[in-house]
Amino acid sequence: MNTTDLLAIVNEYDAPIYIYDAQKIENQYNRLIKAFKKVERLKINYAVKALSNISILKLFKYYGAGLDTVSIQEVQLGLSAGFKAKDIIYTPNGVSLQEIEEVAQLGCQINIDNLSVLEQFGSRNPGIPVCLRINPHVMAGGNRNISVGHIDSKFGISIHQMPHVLRIVSNTNMHINGIHMHTGSDILDIDVFLHAAEILFNTAKQFTNLDFLDFGSGFKVPYTENDIETNIEELGKKLSKRFNAFQLEYGKPLTLAFEPGKFLVSEAGYFLARVNTVKQTTSTVFAAVDSGFNHFIRPMFYQSFHDIINLSNENGNERFYSVVGYVCETDTFASNRRIKEIKEGDILCFKNAGAYCFSMSSNYNSRYKPAEVLWINNKAFLIRERETLNDLLQKQCKVEIPDLVTELN
């Protein structure tokens, strides 16, 4: 996409707005497939939580992907998008046994990361295949909030608790058909990932009838022009070789599964916002946009970096700005960032806005969630309308307060 395309979409659908480039999504998907082309049975399950618009899910169904889900609602979205239940893996954390059983009855692959839940589910549903999510106790990821494989993580069953797992499996006659791990996001050190993979392989040897091994994801994408990223090609070469060797050791063919989210959609996303005010203080120039952490919380929540381009003045002189929002708390997108000179009314473009941006948006301050547009075959398609006041009021119950007060008195 180019500047002309982005500004044309704003002119048609207004700002703030999310825009997704389908070609970039397809390129990332094909890049992953190509990196693991030497693995005969490869399954890419898109992580729905990254971006759950049903049109995006349908796009991945068209590519041939499965889905990785963490809630029954994501499962239901996947089914609504046309996915078969067998192509959906459900990896919850801290949910009720009732929800897990409801998803299991839909026919999805269940992935359990809790000894207590494993024993309860196995006792009640011994005939339903289950995948185990292990915690390899490997620290990986670019931020404590997104590093989920370390020893103090709430995710996964510790590899040191495997004797307990084996006892539960034996007592309940459960069928364990997969082993899963996820070390964290923004992984750069391939050797660390491969080390965790060896732990998964060693765990897999303790189960005789597996169908797949799921290595999670967490691949880092570049956030600036010269930023470093996970070397998918090198990882594909090394892990494919080791996986194929393990299959021979194991004695039966296995599926190698991944569940990428950010890797597939982050770079495809653009968030466009209009500048409301430019405010000079004694030390800072603030550019305040018609948005805030209600629409785009990652910079505040994860301290994530998102490149910001002034689409309205790409050839101007650079100045230093702190880009902030309109929420009545500190909601700073960028501090003292070099950006082409900004004027009120300019359109700013936040890059890498495809993953965990709209999906983490809210109605805080009673603001409306923005529209979403899919750019495909050089055309823009509205895939979510901008919210209105009716959307905020739709589920609220109308109570006549004077009558209620009188009744209570």
TrEMBL record:
CC cofactor: pyridoxal 5'-phosphate
Entry keyword set: Amino-acid biosynthesis, Decarboxylase, Lyase, Lysine biosynthesis, Pyridoxal phosphate
Binding positions (pyridoxal 5'-phosphate): 218, 356
Pathway the protein takes part in: Amino-acid biosynthesis; L-lysine biosynthesis via DAP pathway; L-lysine from DL-2,6-diaminopimelate: step 1/1
N6-(pyridoxal phosphate)lysine sites (modified residues): 49
Residues noted as binding substrate in the record, renumbered to the chain: 298, 302, 329, 356
EC number: 4.1.1.20
CDD domains according to UniProt: PLPDE_III_DapDC (cd06828)
Domain Orn/DAP/Arg decarboxylase 2 N-terminal: start-end pairs: 24-266
Any one GO MF annotation of this record: diaminopimelate decarboxylase activity
Catalytic activity: meso-2,6-diaminopimelate + H(+) = L-lysine + CO2
Domain Orn/DAP/Arg decarboxylase 2 C-terminal: 20-354
InterPro entries in alphabetical order: Ala_racemase/Decarboxylase_C, DAP_deCOOHase_LysA, De-COase2_C, De-COase2_N, Orn/DAP/Arg_de-COase, PLP-binding_barrel
Subunit structure: Homodimer.
Role description: Specifically catalyzes the decarboxylation of meso-diaminopimelate (meso-DAP) to L-lysine.
Family label: Belongs to the Orn/Lys/Arg decarboxylase class-II family. LysA subfamily.
Protein name (Swiss-Prot/TrEMBL): Diaminopimelate decarboxylase
Organism the protein comes from: Pseudofulvibacter geojedonensis
